[in-house]
Write a structure and sequence with these properties.
Elements lengths: L4 H23 L9 E7 L10 E4 L2 E11 L6 E7 L10 E5 L7 E5 L11 E5 L5 H9 L1 H23 L2 H31 L6 H18 L1 H45 L3 H8 L2 H22 L35
Parallel strand pairs: 1-7, 2-6, 5-7
Antiparallel strand pairs: 1-4, 2-3, 3-4, 5-6
Helix pairs in contact: 2-3
């Protein structure tokens, strides 16, 4: 079978396009023959990161950056990483962007210590880095960083001293010292007045103590009279309390006697209230009357013509009346005598 030149050209073109696509994806870090693991990370600044840049763990390359995408706001950049190594990445791991002096930017994954791992197409946490200059500065000359911090602190201290020693602050310090001198003078004056007050001969405190001693002396002289007065007041209060208590008890006893008399009358068959509570005749009469009334109502309901006779031809109802009440509902039974 002879193959035409057009078919050969078409087959070669298809093979070339396929190889071109495979090679382009291979350069981007995507492998079609090895088992890969896709991982996503979100950054606010990728610091020049590009596709095909390496992804490392503990200094070893385990994959490459496959795709970088973002929205129109450029506030969040999504990085798609393809891991060609079969590694377990704990869920508390962090992905950092590491620039280098040679211009190659990579993503470094710092492994966590969790026992669960990020699944396929999962998202790893990220952390912003300080940049290559600060990293180099801190590694090359740590003392220079400390000196810079110390100079900044000294400058802050000098500015504070200058604020204290400016003309306005000096005036405030002078005013404070003047006020302190005035306060000291007032303390001296107050101390003099206190000495006069505490003088044992002419001081006001001495006179007050003298009056207090005189008052306590008078109390001591009249101690017996005060004792008798308190005793009399105690006796009077006792008599008053006993008088009121006796009156209350007498009233209470009288009330109890009246109550007992009333209860005795109720328990006996004398009087209207006693008969109502103790005699069953009234109850029986009421029961009989209720039965007769029920019989009348049932007879009226059964034979209404015996009581209301409206007849054109003058025929009378000859049905005999009820002798026994009709069966009623269960909630209102008849009482038989």
């Amino acid at each position: 079978m002879k193959i035409s030149n057009e078919s050969k050209v078409g087959a070669l073109t298809a093979i070339a396009i396929t190889l071109l696509i495979l090679g382009f994806n291979f350069l981007k870090g995507k492998s079609f023959f090895d088992k890969t693991h896709t991982l996503y990370a979100k950054y606010s600044n990728v610091q020049g990161l590009a596709t095909s840049n390496p992804v490392t763990i503990n200094g070893m390359q385990v994959g490459t950056v496959y795709k970088i995408s973002t929205d129109k706001n450029m506030k969040e950049i999504l990085v798609n990483m393809t891991l060609t190594k079969d590694v377990n990445i704990p869920v508390n791991s962090v992905a950092l962007i590491r620039p280098s002096l040679l211009g190659t930017i990579s993503i470094e994954i710092k492994l966590g210590d969790a026992t669960t791992y990020i699944p396929q197409n999962g998202t790893i946490a990220t952390q912003n880095t300080t940049g290559i200059f600060n990293d180099v500065l801190s590694k090359v000359d740590p003392v220079l960083v400390q000196v810079t911090k110390a100079v900044t602190s000294i400058d802050s201290v000098l500015q504070a001293v200058n604020r204290i020693l400016d003309p306005h602050a000096k005036n405030n310090i002078s005013a404070t010292l003047d006020n302190l001198n005035k306060t000291t003078a007032n303390l001296i004056t107050a101390s003099t007045s206190l000495n006069v007050l505490l003088n044992t001969q002419t001081g006001a405190l001495a006179g007050t103590l003298k009056n207090l001693n005189s008052f306590t002396g008078n109390l001591d002289k009249n101690n017996d009279k005060i004792t008798n007065l308190v005793t009399n007041l105690d006796k009077t209060a006792t008599n008053l309390s006993q008088l009121e208590l006796q009156k209350t008890l007498t009233t209470l006893n009288s009330t109890i006697d009246d109550l007992q008399t009333t209860i005795g009358k109720l328990n006996s068959t004398k009087g209207t209230a006693g008969l109502l509570l103790n005699d069953t005749k009234l109850y029986n009469n009421l029961t009989a009357t209720a039965n007769k009334l029920n019989l009348l109502l049932d007879d009226l309901k059964t034979n209404p013509k015996r009581y209301i006779n409206i007849s054109v031809f003058g025929r009378k109802n000859k049905n005999p009346g009820l002798l026994v009440p009709l069966p009623d509902t269960i909630n209102a039974p008849y009482l038989r005598q």
